Amino acid sequence: MADQSILQPGNLLMVQERERLLAALLREHTQGRGLDGLRAFEAGCSTGYNLRLFVQWGARPENIAGIDLDPAAADYCRAHAPEIRVHSGSAAAIDEPDESFDVVLAFTLYSSVPDEHVANSISRELYRITRRRGLILVYDMRRKNPANRSVHPIEHTDIRRWFPSCPVEATTLTLAPPLARRIGRWAQWLYGPLAAIPPLRTHAFWTIRRP
Ligand SMILES: C[S@@+](CC[C@H](N)C(=O)[O-])C[C@H]1O[C@@H](n2cnc3c(N)ncnc32)[C@H](O)[C@@H]1O
Q1: How far apart are CA 191 and CA 193, in angstroms?
Q2: Which CATH class is domain 9-26+36-209?
Q3: Fewer CB atoms < 10 Å away: N or C end of the chain?
């Protein structure tokens, strides 16, 4: 099992690339006003790295919420950021009001959901809790992960099927993780040039605009 720690230099390089894209989208979406009034939700938030990131970037903790199926992960979130609202359970049923978030994230969630019916229910819930003209941001693998057979790639057609009424933009990113981890140890400067080569990018980021 690869080291998933953010302190692993290769993991940090991959996450920083994704965060630069997220920051650009948030800058555009908030029209430069910052995150002070932003309401954000993450489905499949795990231990809450992204939830705390929003607060670090200027959002108010009481405007941030998430859900994870794993109760231990949800407990970890609550212990590390008690003001952030974290639900334990499936994102197929989210206990939050309709149209209550400006930005909703699903980062490496769908690849962990093998059942189409559940993926559909999650998508309906993400759509329901996002305000009109809000953003649903999906980041996930588009290639099989040979080191983890319990996850599966997500394709553009999946996103179109789950969010049929929404305009969607896609971009590819993330240098193949085994390569990123190797160069993280001895040549971090190579991340950018290698990640610029499309066949080496293993993930995609979909920006789904709620009409
Ligand atoms: C690979 S982790 C992603 C963590 C986080 N989103 C990130 O980007 O760092 C996937 C998470 O999705 C959660 N998960 C899987 N199925 C779920 C479901 N139906 N509802 C909510 N969470 C789910 C798992 O428990 C796990 O914590």
Answers
A1: 6
A2: alpha beta
A3: N
> Which of 41, 110, 112 for a ligand 1 pocket mutation test, highest count of atoms within 8 Å of Cβ?
112
Which secondary structure element, helix H or strand E, spans residue 200, and what is its range? none
Does residue 113 line the site of ligand 1, with CB under 6 A? yes
From the list 167, 148, 146, 125, the residue with the least C-alpha distance to 156 is 167
Q: What does DSSP say about strands 40-43 and 101-107: parallel, antiparallel, or unpaired?
A: parallel
Please check whether residue 3 is in contact with residue 11, taking contact to mean a CB–CB distance below 8 angstroms.
Answer: yes
Determine if ligand 1 sits within 6 Å of the CB of residue 67: yes
Per-residue pLDDT 10s for the chain (211 aa) are 458 899 999 999 999 999 999 999 999 999 989 999 999 999 999 999 999 999 999 999 999 999 999 999 999 999 999 999 999 999 999 999 999 999 999 999 999 999 999 999 999 999 999 999 999 999 999 998 888 889 999 999 999 999 999 999 999 999 999 999 999 999 999 999 999 999 999 999 999 999 9
